[in-house]
Write a structure and sequence with these properties.
By secondary structure, the chain is α/β, with parallel strands linked by helices. Helices cover 43% and strands 12% of the residues. It has helices at 9-20, 32-40, 57-64, 84-104, 139-156, 179-189, 204-216, 237-248, 259-275, 284-292, 299-305, 312-326, and strands at 2-4, 26-28, 48-50, 70-72, 110-113, 126-127, 161-166, 168-170, 198-203, 227-230, 233-236, 295-296. Helix 1 packs across helix 7 (204-216) and helix 4 (84-104) runs parallel beside helix 5.
């Protein structure tokens, strides 16, 4: 199986889950030595790493020769306005090249990782796989939307490609600290602003197992129906605060903030970035997400696979303990979860 993005958060955990399930992998990476060390320290041996230009379809076809499936999760993630064109061109071009290569050599099992952001409509009652593609402004978000549009065209042409739409991805053992994990660290270490809507996230380990299931159950036809939201759980801001405080055994700073003020702050940050380019998580789009996020419905995947999502207590507990060990959260901010012998608080897994 050929995998891209194997040193990123989603790709790395999916690769680990595929290896645990007994699959032979060919991983496309930028730094073979670093990738070899990362998987080796986790007790996994990958026989073959590949380093080619992800925009070179001919080179990709050669690299994929002999594989029976393709998993594509690689993406450039940057909010730096100076890298806007590079981010957009890399992500859209890579999707076209990777899936084009797999299709060209007749691989009949392709899986593309999109994002619920491709379906984001501020203030909507909810989203599912039938929701229209969103109208987004930031380069990364636009790249996911336009990549998604291309993959849907492939599906309509009969190309055997499935799509997943993860919500915010959280969990332990994150190679580069994802945006959602950074948010968790900020909520605990600095402030959890409570506004309208809430926070939706999926445990990276559940997402990885979902990818394994889909790759092991490729569709034979009706590819337009092989689009799956993997959304985990939705937590209104008050509920998220209560859950985190229960795990930590302490209060966290969590003021109520006007949604209009948050969106105005995001719009101001966008204006300032045009004058003085800098990278920040604050933007008009991110503040719209924080105040107008619609609940994403994972019922299609749950019904198709029979799988469930683990509890928030398990996800957040494991994530915070790992963040403390990795130095992303100060011990004093992690409350009782900072103790080395802290016992995980785990509920029985339930459907989203």
């Amino acid at each position: 199986m050929f995998c891209t993005g194997a040193t990123g958060f989603v790709g790395a955990h999916t690769a680990l889950a595929l290896l645990a399930a007994g699959h032979d992998l060919r991983l496309m990476v930028r730094d073979q030595d670093a990738a070899h060390d990362w998987f080796g320290t986790r007790g996994c041996q990958v026989e073959r790493f590949v380093t080619v230009d992800i925009l070179d379809q001919a080179a990709l076809q050669h690299a994929m020769a002999g594989c029976d499936a393709v998993f594509h999760a690689a993406a450039a993630v940057s909010l730096d306005p100076r890298r806007a064109r590079e981010t957009y061109d890399t992500n859209v071009g890579a999707t076209k090249a990777v899936l084009g290569a797999g299709s060209a050599i007749g691989i009949g099992n392709l899986l593309y990782v999109s994002s619920v952001m491709a379906l984001f409509h501020p203030g909507a009652a909810g989203v599912d796989e039938s929701t229209a593609l969103s109208e987004l402004s930031e380069p990364y978000s636009r790249s996911k939307r336009d990549s998604e549009a291309h993959v849907r065209e492939l599906q309509q042409q009969g190309v055997p490609v499935q799509i997943t739409y993860p919500a915010g991805v959280v969990g332990p053992d994150d190679p580069k600290l994802s945006a959602a994990n950074r948010a968790i660290a900020s909520f605990i270490g600095q402030m959890l602003p409570r506004s309208t809507t809430g926070f939706q996230c999926v445990d990276v380990r559940d997402l990885a197992l979902a990818h394994v299931w889909l790759l092991e159950h490729p569709p034979a036809r009706d590819f337009d129906d092989t689009r799956f939201i993997i959304g985990g759980h939705f937590y209104p801001w008050d509920e998220l605060r209560q859950r985190l405080e229960a795990l930590l055994g302490r209060r966290i700073f969590s003021p109520r903030v006007s949604p209009r003020l948050m969106r105005a702050t995001g719009a101001t940050a966008d204006w300032v970035k045009k004058l003085v380019p800098f990278e920040t998580q604050i933007s008009a789009e991110s503040m719209a997400i924080n105040t107008q996020w619609p609940r994403a419905d994972s019922s299609r995947f749950v019904a198709r696979s029979g799988r469930c999502f683990r509890s928030g207590e398990e996800t957040f507990g494991d994530t915070i303990r790992w963040m403390v060990e990795a130095g992303h959260i100060p011990h004093k901010k992690a409350g009782r979860l900072a103790a080395r012998d802290a016992t995980p608080i785990i509920e029985r897994h339930g459907a989203p």
